[in-house]
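README, section 4: Worked example with a bound small molecule

Sections 1 through 3 covered apo chains. Here we extend the same pipeline to holo records, where the ligand is supplied as SMILES alongside the sequence. The molecule in this example is LBFN2T5F. Nothing else about the input changes; the structure line simply encodes the ligand pose together with the chain.
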Amino acid sequence: MSTRIAFLKGHGTENDFVIVPDPENAMDLSPAAVVALCDRRAGVGGDGLLHVVRSAAHPEAKDLAAEAEWFMDYRNGDGSIAEMCGNGVRVFARYLQHAGYAGEGDLAIATRGGVKTVHLAKNGEITVGMGKARLPEGDVTVSVGERSWPARNVNMGNPHAVAFVDDLEHAGDLFSPPPFSPATAYPDGVNVEFVVDRGPRHVALRVHERGSGETRSCGTGACAVAVATARRDGADPAVTGTPATYTVDVPGGTLVITERPDGEIEMTGPAVIVAEGEIDADWLESSLR
Ligand SMILES: N[C@@H](CCC[C@H](N)C(=O)O)C(=O)O
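The generated complex, written as structure tokens:
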């Protein structure tokens, strides 16, 4: 009988993740293993993977262990590493609650983008303190077919390019990353959000995620979109002195984003554990060859 590896599957607004609990960081979770696990036909399937490790046991997080017991070692579906995942951190918190490591209320989680405070509410919603956005200068144009749009750079720990479009269909099939001009604009890759207005302080997006392709939702992307939209609308909280709250519809649901006058951003949305089971370690090993 081969060794079994425990896993769970979860999603936040249909941005879905394979969850691998590994408190003592005992697994060698290579990029190839992540690709195999996230494969939707031959593996478990997911946009990304949440490796659940105690901060003290992970070289990238041990300095944060006094602030946050758990480290979200997030991986994209192509095996690459990203600084932050907004839907992932809610699902990560839901897993900790599900496993009995956390209850309702506040919880600190270490990420590559710093320690995030997560609030698990009674009604099942989870709110995350996402920190402040950075808005790097730079004129960039994103294109799909014959159409192009200016893109606003917003960094939420990870990079985003936000383009306002007339119709989400204009983003095309998004099978591959949309091209930019200049082509060298994002040497480390970028997540691209296409945005339309739905009403006052209400927008909708489609997203092409770095390392995952088109997904049904992106939490950091929704925050980037709220920030870019507030600047476009003349509703920058640092200027108006009042918080700006945006409802952001994603293909997989709805997220609510508030930016405060001090720049701090909060995101609220659902997080669901849908299954748990065991991975056959022999299968995983054989799928790496
Ligand atoms: N889906 C995530 C973002 C995951 C990381 C992203 N693909 C990147 O490479 O930066 C979210 O919900 O924020």
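What to look for in the output: The radius of gyration is 19 Å. The chain has a mean pLDDT of 97.

Section 5 describes how to batch many such records.
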